[in-house]
Amino acid sequence: MTQQPAGTVTVTAPMVTVTDVRRSFGTGERAVHALRGVSFTIGRGELTALKGRSGSGKTTLLNLVGGLDSPTGGTITLDGTDMGGLDEDGRLALRRDRLGFVFQSFGLLPVLTAAENVGIPMRLRKVPAAQREERARTLLALVGLADHANQRPGELSGGQQQRVAIARALANEPDLIIADEPTGQLDSETGRSIMELLRAVVRSEGVTVLVATHDPNLMELADRVVELRDGHIVEDPAPVA
Predict the structure, then answer these.
(1) Among 42, 50, 97, 221, which has the minimal tally of Cβ within 10 Å of its Cβ?
(2) Residue 110's pLDDT is what?
(3) Which tens digit of pLDDT belongs to each residue from 166-185?
């Protein structure tokens, strides 16, 4: 095995690399250009906040990074995997095995308990029931809901439902969590507690998070803030060391 010289610094590749990404809808004069040559990287274990007004391209960019859509041009890589080289089955496997999603509307199934909602991604991977139930309990404890495992979404507050959604996003030990306005339906105090939870998850689980938010009070919890305006990045400070 080759040894590195003393003092050599090992540089790890970014978790996400977005290079000259463009996304247009429609053709000709009526085409809508949602993204116009966007480039940036997200480091491993980094919480990056994406800000911008409605129509700036935030959700389009999240959908592309999450493999829910394909760019018109440019490339996106996740941990060195070129997402453009994946077929639909490959993108499905990537979303199932390596990504977690948190949505503004929580996205919980009302007929299932909190623990059962957390277990859904593991069911898709055919994780044995005992292992699935144990991890669901562990994750609910992580987000402060150990005593609410058997309650259904309608019996939980908005903040509690979003905590269940975060636990669900962590179920399959993803490399990256994508959160689209996760505090949009919450009051400011509850919203901040959710962002603080995401911050804590980055530290404790080593996961990378890309979160879209319009709340400037929450951006201070991010390692870095990237601003989109009219499909362009207008602000992208260097990652926090």
Answers:
(1) 97
(2) 96
(3) 999 999 999 999 999 888 88
Catalogue the E-assigned strands of 43-144.
47-51, 73-78, 81-82, 99-103
Domains of the chain: 16-235 (3.40.50.300)
Structure tokens at 206: 């080593």
Burial of 104 (0-12, 13-18, 19+ CB in 10 A): middle
Range list of H helices, 46-87: 58-65
DSSP E strand stretches across the chain: 16-25, 32-42, 47-51, 73-78, 81-82, 99-103, 176-180, 208-212, 224-229, 232-235
Q: Quote the CA–CA distance of 128 and 132 in Å, as a whole number.
A: 6
31: left (phi over 0), alpha (psi -120 to 50) or beta: beta
pLDDT (tens digit per residue) in 56-84: 899 999 999 999 999 999 999 999 899 98
- pLDDT value at residue 239: 52
Q: Tell me the backbone φ, ψ of residue 112, rounded to 5 degrees.
A: -105, 155
Cβ neighbourhood burial of 28 (10 Å; 0-12, 13-18, 19+):
exposed
Q: What 3-state DSSP class applies to 5?
A: coil
Structure tokens at 42: 């997200």
The pTM score is 0.87
Query: What is the pLDDT, as a whole number, of residue 214?
Result: 82
DSSP β-bridge partners for residue 230: none
Edge-to-edge strands, sheet with 208-212: 99-103, 176-180, 208-212, 47-51, 224-229, 232-235
